[in-house]
Amino acid sequence: MHTVVQSASKSVTIGHDQPFCIIGERINPTGRKKFQELLRAGDLSTIAIDVEAQVKGGADMLDVNMGVPLTDEPALLAKAIKMIQTITDLPICIDSSVIEALQAGLEAYEGVALVNSMTGEDDRMEIILPLIKKHNAAIIALPNDETGIPATAAERMVITEKIIRTVEKHGISMDKLVIDPLAMTVGADPEAVKITLETIHLIREKWGLNMTLGASNISFGLPNRHALNAAFLPSAMSHGLTCAVMDARTPAINEAVRAADLLLGLDPWGGNWIARYRAQEAAKNEG
Amino acid sequence: MTHDEIIKALFDETMIGNAPAVLELTNAGLAAGMGPDMILFEALIPSLEEVGARFERGDYFVPEMLIAGKAMSGALNILRPLLAETGAETVGTFLMGTVKGDVHDIGKNLVNIMLEGAGFKVIDIGVQVSPEKFIAAIQEHEPDILGMSAFLTTTMPMFKVNIHEITKAGLRDKVIIMVGGAPVTQEYADAVGADGFAADASTAVRIAKDLIQKKRALINA
């Protein structure tokens, strides 16, 4: 299954036979007071800094979220997407829980976007899926519904199946569907990550769909989060995770992902791994 | 064991989240003639307060806070009926729910555990709570504080809707309202007309206690 996401000039393929797709996060003002104030005042300069940091870190795509409370999120997101497209050719993952913002973002975007995200709630799917179809976009779907976040893999499978049926009903092909099997912190439940891994495995076996996660969730509330995230991602990849929304600025985590690419046969003969090493050495020698 | 030894052991075992030991010591304390209020206010609550203080300083982490809270909850299950008999003043009643449109509950559950640990009676009405359901629960349980949780920028506006509906129902001055959740800020809490906000579970407990004390002082004045 190949999910192809494109900017005006660049194409990224997500798939089980492809190197892992790092969707750079942080272009997101949640919990960042100063950034929110700047955005409210119409100052988008922080976005450019964040984009540069994610690109430099090795992101394959960029997740863009403009969820600033008490603002016109659709207008802000459209403006941000237009601006980001002038500074990078990486494809964009349009991230909002506001449907009007997703719509505005899709209209502002040139290419094939990934949309983050919808839940398995009927009323949400019925509004979002026509938008996805109209814009030929791909959609991230979470297997939770109005009753809450399912505690078991079996329950997550039931909602995933329902999502698949609904996507089919809207005439959207399966390559446009990326499931987020839900990552919760192991700090609040010792079984949380096991359940996520089991869900990834089951979805991979049954439907072969692409899957993403908000990967850094797993280490919330714990010390030395980078080490936990770096241990988690290769494990999730070997179960069938094909992309993740994550901060690309952390070398330890990126290296773990790229090492797993090589070890899992997704970087044949270590071409990317070796090129990366050479680039780092060259940068050292210049410095 | 003397009463002092039991208090010290309870404090220490709660701090490390040793639930079986806390249960055993609670029973031992009661058997040795200690009052349930003594066990609660001299051992368990101070221990959880220390856990909270360490968490706020960054010395304690979420799992440590959780298991300490759970150990404390186990003891409270024994103590609660006994405390009710003695008619001791409770710390307060806290009604908790995640707003309509939102199913996130990990943060909310963590706050619940810490509140229970601090001696609050917590009534959790779950996720996706509509304004009508909040109002009915306020009428039924008459809590000192209503806590509302929202994890999404899209569901946060429900705070304002709920507060508006609670005001319309004539209940606004009957209950203290606190809000929280990942995207919520003090500024936002003020804007929607909440009485309190906290960024984490331990701070939530501290602020809940402060707000109740202020309200009781006002009533008694």
From TrEMBL, chain A:
<dbReference type="InterPro" id="IPR011005">
    <property type="entry name" value="Dihydropteroate_synth-like_sf"/>
</dbReference>
<keyword id="KW-0846">Cobalamin</keyword>
<dbReference type="InterPro" id="IPR050554">
    <property type="entry name" value="Met_Synthase/Corrinoid"/>
</dbReference>
<dbReference type="Pfam" id="PF00809">
    <property type="entry name" value="Pterin_bind"/>
</dbReference>
<comment type="similarity">
    <text>Belongs to the vitamin-B12 dependent methionine synthase family.</text>
</comment>
<dbReference type="GO" id="GO:0008705">
    <property type="term" value="F:methionine synthase activity"/>
</dbReference>
<dbReference type="GO" id="GO:0050667">
    <property type="term" value="P:homocysteine metabolic process"/>
</dbReference>
<feature type="domain" description="Pterin-binding">
    <location>
        <begin position="20"/>
        <end position="264"/>
    </location>
</feature>
<dbReference type="GO" id="GO:0031419">
    <property type="term" value="F:cobalamin binding"/>
</dbReference>
<dbReference type="InterPro" id="IPR000489">
    <property type="entry name" value="Pterin-binding_dom"/>
</dbReference>
<dbReference type="GO" id="GO:0032259">
    <property type="term" value="P:methylation"/>
</dbReference>
<dbReference type="GO" id="GO:0046872">
    <property type="term" value="F:metal ion binding"/>
</dbReference>
<protein>
    <submittedName>
        <fullName>Unannotated protein</fullName>
    </submittedName>
</protein>
<keyword id="KW-0479">Metal-binding</keyword>
<keyword id="KW-0489">Methyltransferase</keyword>
<keyword id="KW-0170">Cobalt</keyword>
<dbReference type="GO" id="GO:0005829">
    <property type="term" value="C:cytosol"/>
</dbReference>
<dbReference type="GO" id="GO:0046653">
    <property type="term" value="P:tetrahydrofolate metabolic process"/>
</dbReference>
<keyword id="KW-0808">Transferase</keyword>
From TrEMBL, chain B:
<feature type="domain" description="B12-binding N-terminal">
    <location>
        <begin position="1"/>
        <end position="91"/>
    </location>
</feature>
<comment type="similarity">
    <text>Belongs to the methylamine corrinoid protein family.</text>
</comment>
<dbReference type="GO" id="GO:0046653">
    <property type="term" value="P:tetrahydrofolate metabolic process"/>
</dbReference>
<keyword id="KW-0170">Cobalt</keyword>
<dbReference type="GO" id="GO:0046872">
    <property type="term" value="F:metal ion binding"/>
</dbReference>
<dbReference type="GO" id="GO:0050667">
    <property type="term" value="P:homocysteine metabolic process"/>
</dbReference>
<dbReference type="Pfam" id="PF02607">
    <property type="entry name" value="B12-binding_2"/>
</dbReference>
<dbReference type="InterPro" id="IPR036594">
    <property type="entry name" value="Meth_synthase_dom"/>
</dbReference>
<dbReference type="InterPro" id="IPR050554">
    <property type="entry name" value="Met_Synthase/Corrinoid"/>
</dbReference>
<dbReference type="Pfam" id="PF02310">
    <property type="entry name" value="B12-binding"/>
</dbReference>
<feature type="domain" description="B12-binding">
    <location>
        <begin position="91"/>
        <end position="221"/>
    </location>
</feature>
<dbReference type="GO" id="GO:0031419">
    <property type="term" value="F:cobalamin binding"/>
</dbReference>
<protein>
    <submittedName>
        <fullName>Unannotated protein</fullName>
    </submittedName>
</protein>
<dbReference type="GO" id="GO:0008705">
    <property type="term" value="F:methionine synthase activity"/>
</dbReference>
<dbReference type="InterPro" id="IPR036724">
    <property type="entry name" value="Cobalamin-bd_sf"/>
</dbReference>
<keyword id="KW-0479">Metal-binding</keyword>
<dbReference type="InterPro" id="IPR003759">
    <property type="entry name" value="Cbl-bd_cap"/>
</dbReference>
<dbReference type="GO" id="GO:0005829">
    <property type="term" value="C:cytosol"/>
</dbReference>
<dbReference type="InterPro" id="IPR006158">
    <property type="entry name" value="Cobalamin-bd"/>
</dbReference>
